Amino acid sequence: MTGLNGNTAVVTGAGRGIGRDISLALAGCGADVAVLDVDIEGAKETAGLIEEAGRGSIAVKCNVAEYAEVQDCVKEVLGWRDQIHILVNNAGITRDNLLLRMREDEWDAVIRINLTGTFNMTKIVTKHMFKKRFGRVVNIASVIGQMGNVGQSNYAASKAGIIGFTKSVAKELAPRGVTSNAIAPGFIDSPMTAVLPEDVQEQMRRKIPLGRFGTGSDVANVVLFLVSELGEYVTGQVINCDGGMVMAR
Ligand code: NAI
């Protein structure tokens, strides 16, 4: 249904977890994928899996929080393929703490990687998309940016920021054929969530109407919709992929 043959995608934080699943799904629909991650070993593994599946891939070490580094990485990708059609801003971290205990470095790290990282990548890649008059930007936000959560004021602020950013970019770039949307996943099985204690995971599960955690593939399916022809009239939206979690709050 979603032919992406001839498309080049850039996915950040693609060395494991949801980013890897998104990359493999894009490749499965025919796209070549530049796998960006601060963890180059993880990125190489993902790129290897994509090549095994018969698509082109390049692994690039990239800390999205560093503007100059992002510039160099995007240049490297554009040396490999002459157009970037799809950008998925997926890299993200948590540094949970109650507000009264939250240290400045915990606040700064989450805002810099999740929000400033999304700004850096989007600004640099859409400059190129703007000239080509085509682009699909998908930002991975979170239900926490909509609902808030105890111990996650930094993370919630970064993800709410991504939602406002997504809509502004959608308005600015629509005249140039570039769409910008966000996905708000709920609780997804990944290395990020596997570290939570079993009782916390059980509490979370009870809050999900569909009764199960999501998978990286659940999120990847929404990405595929947004970047394919099926989603070409959709921009400035936040699509929840959360088993109904956000309506159950
Ligand atoms: P993860 O921790 O398993 O993977 C994150 C990847 O991002 C890792 O490969 C890591 O090396 C990379 N990364 C971290 N800092 C980076 C930086 N500065 N530059 C480039 N890459 C960097 O996390 P997961 O669960 O796969 O999450 C992916 C995205 O989905 C994140 O934005 C997260 O906030 C979001 N999300 C996850 C949910 C979940 O339940 N797992 C729920 C809602 C949103």
What does this protein look like?
The protein is α/β, with parallel strands linked by helices. The protein contains nine helices and seven strands, in the order βαβαβαβαβααβαααβ. Helices cover 47% and strands 15% of the residues. It has a seven-stranded parallel beta sheet with strand order 3-2-1-4-5-6-7, with helices on both faces. β2, α2 and β3 (57-61) form a beta-alpha-beta unit. It is globular. The model has no long low-confidence stretch (mean pLDDT 96). The structure holds 1,4-dihydronicotinamide adenine dinucleotide. Residues 12-13, 15-19, 37-39, 42, 62-65, 90-93, 113, 117, 140, 142, 185, 187-188, 190-193 line the site of 1,4-dihydronicotinamide adenine dinucleotide.
Task: From the structure above, extract its key features.
249 residues; Rossmann fold; 9 helices; binds 1,4-dihydronicotinamide adenine dinucleotide
Topology:
Blueprint: E1 8-12, H1 17-28, E2 32-37, H2 40-52, E3 57-61, H3 67-80, E4 86-89, H4 104-132, E5 135-140, H5 144-147, H6 153-173, E6 178-185, H7 191-194, H8 198-206, H9 216-227, E7 238-241
Parallel strand pairs: 1-2, 1-4, 2-3, 4-5, 5-6, 6-7
Number of helices: 9
Mean pLDDT: 96
| Fraction of helical residues | 40-55%
Strand content: 15-25%
The secondary-structure class comes to: alpha/beta
Side-by-side strand order of the widest sheet: 3-2-1-4-5-6-7
User: What would CATH call the class?
Assistant: Alpha Beta
When the domains are counted, the total is: 1
Biggest sheet architecture = 7 strands, parallel
Number of strands: 7
